[in-house]
Amino acid sequence: MQELSIDEGVFIRSMATRNTPGGVARATKDVVKVLDASGKDVVVVEAVGAGQSEVEIMKIAHTIVVVLAPGLGDDIQAIKAGIMEIGDIFVVNKADRENVNKAVSDVEAMLNMNPEKEKWRPPVVKTTAIVGGGTAELLKEIDQHREYLEAGAIDMRRRQRVETELVEAIKERVAKSIVEDLKRRGELDKLVQNVLAKEMDPYSAVDMLLAKRLRGFKRR
Known about the structure:
- By secondary structure, the protein is mainly alpha-helical.
- It has helices at residues 28-37, 74-81, 100-113, 135-185, 187-196, 202-219; strands at residues 65-68, 89-92, 124-126.
- The chain folds into two domains: 4-152, Rossmann fold (3-Layer(aba) Sandwich), CATH 3.40.50.300; 167-219, no CATH class.
- It is elongated, with a radius of gyration of 23 Å.
- It starts with 27 loop residues before the first helix and ends with a helix.
């Protein structure tokens, strides 16, 4: 990172997630679009992690590399989090450790248990980042996955990504509009008081609100 920071052809930016769920900052998708539009050949996004909810990276990156380490319980964590479903390439780092082959076997076993939705079979690469071991093999796998995407799969991924982004934007705008309208009418405060008085739970309040809104739409 220090060496690349003085390269005029490389732009590095650290972005705080600010408690944003998903493992990446809220503005990351927009930053990637700007870098793409500016002519950058490769954009690398490092997520804070990949757990049960930190999978927002799926909506941003074309190739997802999941990095694990031997002896840290990553195999069990991967099963819990379901990250086996998001990875295009799996990397077992710290390959100089004793348990590296077991970690690789565990990952491959979990991949065999996962139903294949696409023709691409995620490879498992061993690396030793501190000395650059396995880097060439990893770059080769990334290039091969890019060729696979350019053969046709990338169009489907782009459409899914755009559709997801559009749906999320609609949800955000609609929710904001409804909340602002409720505050203006004083209805939000009434619902809060009802929940505080244990006259209804939050879910029932939302159901009642949506039913009322739908009746209003039908009358129009």
